[in-house]
Amino acid sequence: MKCPFCAHLDTQVVETRISEDGEFIRRRRRCSHCDKRFTTYERPEVSFPTVVKKDGRRIDFEHTKLQGSFNLALRKRPVSTEQIDSAIERIEEKLLNLGQREIASHRIGEMVMRELKKLDKVAYIRFASVYRSFEDIDEFKTLVDEVNK
Predict the structure, then answer these.
(1) For the chain, which has fewer Cβ within 10 Å, the N-terminal or C-terminal residue?
(2) Structural domain for 122, as ranges
(3) How many domains does the chain have?
């Protein structure tokens, strides 16, 4: 690793520690040329697929957008933060396990609907009514009937 002080390439690891939560490794390094010390952090790099929108645009996957969708649908509903976080983790794990470079946004929407249906029926209907852009009350009624089965 290049020294940030003198740009020399020969540095040694003096100390290695794993963070308390196990999310990263902290390494103290010493430059063999200028003898200064510095810290580096090692984290796993995960690569989510690129999201392809309905209009063909490609955007990076954003955890915050997914979380926002859940929070909006589940607003004022009796669902714990832990349950929401678990549902989001399941979706992100599925996305990573697909091993695809791109995914259509509607597939992510379907994953969200499946998770919401398990968590809270009202939140599921809220999300589905917006996501599927219902044009009339009959489409809404069909969804409610489906949930009641």
Answers:
(1) C
(2) 50-148
(3) 2
Element (H, E) at 65: helix 63-73
Render pLDDT for 76-97 as a digit per residue (tens, 0 to 9). 999 999 999 999 999 999 999 9
- Asked whether residue 19 is domain-assigned, the answer is yes
In this structure, the answer to whether residues 36 and 103 fall within a common structural domain is no
* β partners of residue 28: 15, 39
Tell me the torsion sign for CA atoms 94, 98, 102, 105.
negative
Q: Where are the beta strands (DSSP E) in the chain?
A: 11-18, 25-31, 37-42, 50-52, 58-59, 102-104
